[in-house]
Amino acid sequence: MARLVALQQNQLSFPPLASSLSDFNGARLQTHIQLKRKTWQPKGSLIVSASSTKKILIMGGTRFIGVFLSRQLVKEGHQVTLFTRGKAPITQQLPGESDTDFADFSSKILHLKGDRKDYDFVKSSLSAEGFDVVYDINGREAEEVEPILDALPNLEQFIYCSSAGVYLKSDLLPHAEIDAVDPKSRHKGKLETESLLQSKDVNWTSIRPVYIYGPLNYNPVEEWFFHRLKAGRPIPIPGSGIQITQLGHVKDLATAFLKVLGNEKASKQIFNISGDKYVTFDGLARACAKAGGFPEPEIIHYNPKDFDFGKKKSFPFRDQHFFASVEKAKSVLGLEPDYGLVEGLTDSYNLDFGRGTFRKEADFSTDDIILGKSLVSV
């Protein structure tokens, strides 16, 4: 039998949901109501409601996306359990988060410890606990998802974090949800998972982010630029620097995940999620400088084919145009990003790198190779 534990003692029960989940300022109302939980009915229309208390499982949830998503769900009054291997703390106080808010969140979040690749354990523990909704944040392969579906035959909704990296490279951009996908993509496991969900009698929603950024980002997206800006170094950018890409703030992504919960318009749908503006590589370098209060950066362009970097990456983005339309999410879900690019990068810098915290130490070895050859050529 799986052990479901609260982070503080005597927190295995939760108060009923407030009659209104939050007012305009996000403050909880005190009037409580009891709502009868409904279950997903196969072959029928979606009958779950985002306004009712849900027993929610998040696969993952301690690194980046799940950290912000779990807070939003708890604030909405849901009972939230994180399924992790227990190698990282289940909660950590976020930069700028008050002691009171952190204590409130920590007292309510639950933990189910296990390895998601131990399929027998997944089946037994999830079926024993029972969940209404599953958010799969870290699933990469279809075989990791099937045991979850088998364990929860009455699951109301399965919400999956896929990737815009599944699209087939095209001259026609931005990518839309109906565009061709690449079965040979390094994200093919996510494609296979989406196919599995479509084949099952389950209510599912798939979210395809482009590049995600924001505080606690474990991918070297904005951090790569911040390291070089802080060191006063030139920023080496491949090609012309006019390649167009797209970033979405992690808090906006968490909001998107919240908006599809219990939303019948999201039933069996795929949504691209990102910022609604595109940016060039050079423009991103300048935006990062502006966000961190650095001078205009010196940008060095180079031809990647002129260098052998071994297994190291010299640049954190794919060297091509890569961006997706978010019009479907805006029109169907009413989603409007809260963060513009510079504003979002400023939030990331102020709450993370600017405080002296980052995920990876600076590595300028590939820069030095590029700059050495570039300076000789000049």
UniProtKB/TrEMBL annotation:
The lineage of its organism: Eukaryota, Viridiplantae, Streptophyta, Embryophyta, Tracheophyta. GO terms for cellular component: cytosol. It comes from Medicago truncatula. Residues 56-273 form the NAD-dependent epimerase/dehydratase domain. InterPro entries: Epimerase_deHydtase, NAD(P)-bd_dom_sf. It comes from the Eukaryota. Gene3D superfamilies: NAD(P)-binding Rossmann-like Domain (3.40.50.720). PANTHER family: CHLOROPLAST STEM-LOOP BINDING PROTEIN OF 41 KDA B, CHLOROPLASTIC, UDP-GLUCOSE 4-EPIMERASE. Pfam families: Epimerase. This is Putative NAD(P)-binding domain-containing protein. The gene is 25499634. One of its GO terms (biological process) is monosaccharide metabolic process.
